[in-house]
Design goal:
The protein is elongated and about 75 Å long. Strand 2 and strand 3 form a beta hairpin. It has five helices and four strands. The two termini are 32 Å apart. It has two domains: 46 residues; 111 residues, Roll (Nuclear Transport Factor 2, Chain: A), CATH 3.10.450.50. It is α+β, with helices and mostly antiparallel strands and 166 residues long. It is 48% helix and 32% strand.
């Protein structure tokens, strides 16, 4: 229920229209009270939706933060999003950012998150990376499907990258 706010707003709008029609046709205290209750309930549900962050939303935010960190060209910022036991990925990040300058790095379209177990998830998206090599200036362009494997840290409950397929 608390994945997206659109159903809350649509339901609140429809309930509000019904409440207006009931208030105009009946003009009873109960129908007029409904005019106040429907927006209050809709706003309360929208507030709860904003406050409750599901694991799927946490993984989406972790993907966006990791891609933004790649765009900064700062290996230490990117390594904060990589699991401590993923030594091969950590080495690849340092090697890549030493030889390349990234201009743009983001997910083109939506991020599909599949929770695959307790504290494990896979995020799939179309990855877009534009940049150039730092030594010769040759252009780099990447646009393809990316699957990032995440594990939730037991220490701080953050989601860390532990594997990928690109």
């Amino acid at each position: 229920m608390f994945e997206y706010a659109l159903p809350i707003w649509v339901g609140g709008t429809l309930a509000g229209l019904l409440a207006v029609m009931a208030a105009l046709s009946r003009r009873t205290p109960a129908s007029i009270a409904t005019l106040v209750a429907v927006p209050a309930v809709t706003l309360a549900l929208a507030y709860v939706e904003r406050r409750v962050v599901t694991p799927r939303e946490q993984v989406e935010a972790a993907v966006e933060a990791a891609l933004a960190a790649v765009e900064t060209n700062d290996p230490s910022a990117v390594l904060r999003h990589v699991g401590p036991n993923a030594a091969d990925i950590r080495d690849e990040v340092v090697r890549f950012l030493r030889t390349a300058r990234v201009e743009r790095c983001h997910a083109a379209g939506s991020i599909d998150v599949r929770l695959s177990g307790e504290g494990q998830a896979v995020a799939s998206f179309e990855g877009l990376l534009n940049g150039y090599t730092s030594d010769g200036g040759a252009r780099l362009a990447y646009f393809d499907r990316v699957d990032l494997e995440f594990e939730q840290s037991a220490v701080d409950a953050s989601w860390n990258i532990v594997g990928y397929t690109a």
